Amino acid sequence: MKVAIIGQGYVGLTISAFAGEFFEIVGFDNNINIVDQLNEGISHIEGVEGATLRKWIKAGRYRATNRGSDIADVDLVVIAVPTPLTKNRKPDLGFIEAACKTIGENVKRPVLIINESTSFPGTLRSYIKPAIEKYSTGLIEHFYAISPERVDPGRTDFNQRNTPRLFAGLTPEASAKTREFYSKFCDNLVEVSSPEVAEAAKLFENTFRQVNIALVNEFAQIAHSLGISVYETLDAANTKPYGFMKFTPSAGVGGHCIPVDPTYLAAVAEEHGAPATFIRRANEVNLEMSEYIVRRVVEDNGGSLQGTNVLVVGVAYKPNVADVRETAAELVVEHLRSNGAVVSWHDDVVGKWKGESSAPLEGADIAVVVTKHDGVDEKKILASAPYVFDTTGKVKGAKGL
Ligand SMILES: NC(=O)c1ccc[n+]([C@@H]2O[C@H](COP(=O)([O-])OP(=O)(O)OC[C@H]3O[C@@H](n4cnc5c(N)ncnc54)[C@H](O)[C@@H]3O)[C@@H](O)[C@H]2O)c1
Description:
The chain is α/β, with parallel strands linked by helices. The chain is built from twelve helices and 15 strands. It has helices at residues 10-19, 32-39, 50-58, 94-106, 123-135, 172-182, 195-226, 230-237, 261-271, 277-300, 328-338, 378-383; strands at 2-6, 24-28, 62-65, 76-79, 112-115, 143-146, 165-169, 189-191, 309-313, 342-346, 352-353, 356-357, 366-369, 387-390, 399-400. The chain is globular and about 70 Å long. The model has no long low-confidence stretch (mean pLDDT 96). The structure holds nicotinamide-adenine-dinucleotide. Nicotinamide-adenine-dinucleotide binds next to helix 1 and helix 4. Residues 6-12, 28-31, 34, 80-83, 95, 98-99, 102, 117-118, 149-151, 153, 256-257 line the site of nicotinamide-adenine-dinucleotide (NAD).
């Protein structure tokens, strides 16, 4: 079976690498640099080994392309393109629309089309299917299904094989074909009664995380005002064997999912006249954390950061990845600069960010740890400045939340 995977980023390339063992994969991406790199067997995604790609390329089971005609003869298409927010923080389905255009214009016989991109309930039925039909010449009765992706880049204990996968087809036949496809490389398939349930479940999973992160971030501020350790208090609460799940405070949320997906849910809720109060407020609390952290740093340093050299340690949105999308570090840097600090940053996993390069981990007046990669030595962080503020809870001996 020949499978086209539209989008060769975190989700699409991860699936390609797993599915390459069972199918012939055409990795379609409209970024020619990514396509060229992938065809040389070089991976740009953590958790996908170049060696795996090279193995599939050699066996004739993987090829990247940016030519629509290369997907004309596939049996199955997976959509894995970005679903960001517009400038006004509304769902932006522009990438989905472009993927639908590629499919509609090139795939001329009925195939199974599975969406793995995260979006609001109704996207498969009311947006993807009509869009593909709009771009097709003649009516082709494709099979449509959704299977929201749950990949957690950089994570090694859960992967495509052992992470339960939700799915639903628009028709029973589409569901059956979807089960057949994923059963090759996923051991636990969970079929739900409609695509809308699968789409909503994915949004709720990430909304649950966002709201709980906001709650613990607010609690960190309460604990500090009471003069008690937030970490000790959370560990104490976590001894309860049921009804509690531990989240830890941070400089905010980042990445493509947690700051974005809940806004998709809020948008669709409000469109249907339902409340999204928690979701909206959680987003605000998480965004405000950067300001709170900088306020704490200012208070500890005589009330001003004017002309002070501040090193932000870790600008990726989470440990051990190079991904800086929506990273909380951006707001931390902004607030430090608006307080007069001279800001540089250290993150050798990221390397380059916003036209600047990672600075050495030394010689600062103040260090603010936003993300702690496993490979960064705690002692070196502590030695990088006379005052270190840690937002991760991982640098013992530093000031912190
Ligand atoms: N990254 C994650 O951890 C994660 C986890 C679960 C779900 N998701 C969801 O999966 C979807 C994809 O996210 P991602 O992190 O893989 O994004 P990504 O930015 O890493 O990759 C997307 C790729 O799609 C390509 N692309 C964009 N438009 C295209 C088009 N019209 N045709 C072909 N290629 C196109 C881009 O060049 C890019 O390489 C999003 O909806 C996201 O919310 C992401």
